[in-house]
Write a structure and sequence with these properties.
Layout lengths: L1 H28 L2 E7 L6 H15 L3 E7 L7 H11 L3 E5 L11 H11 L7 E6 L12
Parallel strand pairs: 1-2, 1-4, 2-3
Length: about 140
């Protein structure tokens, strides 16, 4: 009787360890990093960030958000993102400067630089979103 109970406990522990390992590998493979290329978007940036947070929580994925701020941005976009960065982990702000030549890097160069600085291990999927300028249309007009 005791041997049967030990077999059941051992089998339960083995299944739990396999499920934990599978979930951990899946979580690392599902890591996404959103890069929002923004300018003067003080009215929209909070909505974009909150929508991405909600979607990641709903899908159960780990995520990171970096806002790449254009050098000609003069509104409160940076201040809004800085408030998110203080309170939320995984949200960052990078300001591009007109003078610095390193800020005119390609997407691949930015990704390599961020991956080398990132404390997380495992593969990441990079998703670049260039927000439309204030005067551009957001969709087809009818």
């Amino acid at each position: 009787m005791i041997s049967v109970l030990l077999w059941i406990i051992g089998l339960y522990a083995a299944v739990a360890a396999c499920a934990y390992g599978w979930a951990r590998r899946r979580r690392q493979a599902d890591r996404q990093h959103y890069v929002l290329v923004a300018g003067n978007h003080q009215r929209e940036i909070e909505g974009y960030v909150r929508k991405l947070q909600w979607q990641a929580q709903r899908l159960g994925r780990e995520f990171g958000i970096t806002v790449l701020l254009a050098p000609d941005s003069y509104d409160e976009t940076a201040a809004i993102v800085e408030k998110f960065a203080r309170g939320e982990t995984g949200i960052g702000l990078v300001r591009q400067s007109v003078e610095a030549s390193e800020d005119h890097r390609s997407k691949e160069e930015w990704e390599r630089a961020w991956e080398s600085e990132s404390p997380t291990s495992g593969p990441q999927q990079w998703i670049w979103v260039e927000l439309p300028a204030a005067g551009e249309a957001k969709g087809p007009r009818r």
